[in-house]
Amino acid sequence: MRTELVLAGACGLYCGACGIYRMYRDQDVERLQYNAEEVFHCRPEQIRCEGCRGPEEYRWSPRCAIAGCVAERGHTFCFECAQFACEDLAAFSADRLDLPISNLRRMAEVGLEAWLAEQEVRWRCPACHHPVDIYSRACRTCGAELTH
Ligand SMILES: [Zn+2]
Question: Tens digit of pLDDT for each residue in 57-81?
Fold first, then answer.
């Protein structure tokens, strides 16, 4: 697997803007602790993920139904599928600001490398340029308001 593929989920999500990936990657102790206690009921060090293409033992969702379906069909991304965008993907996408489907369309249009470069720029704080995730309304580094 090429390294640049690591942060591109089969479903079209950009791992670099995932809350789990960010809190693990940035070692945001306060956020890890809160999510471990209040949301996932686990230990903070159990919240870890190297991205959807990363090592399975570090993957937050090792049994993701979409990734499984894509692998079973011999594809790398959902947009390669004759059934794109199927009902399962549409439901998944609707729960995630419709980013998966719009990302997949964009990826098919401009190619993976250009898409990754766009994502890398898009998911940064406009004030301090630290990476941010899709769920944060304010930058966790400088506190600036995020509108995405
Ligand atoms: Zn910031």
Answer: 888 988 899 999 999 999 999 999 9
14-28 in b/e form (b: 16+ CB < 10 A) is bbbbbbbbbbbbbeb
The CB density around residue 106, as the number of other CB atoms within 10 Å, is: 17
Sign of CA dihedral 126, 130, 136, 141: negative
**For residue 13, how many other CB atoms are within 10 A of its CB?**
24
What's the rounded mean pLDDT across residues 50-55?
A: 89
Ligand 1 centroid from CA 67, angstroms: 32
Q: How far away, in angstroms, is 133 Cα from ligand 1 center?
A: 11
Task: Measure 13 CA to ligand 1 centroid, in angstroms.
Answer: 22
CA of 148 to the centre of ligand 1 (A): 14
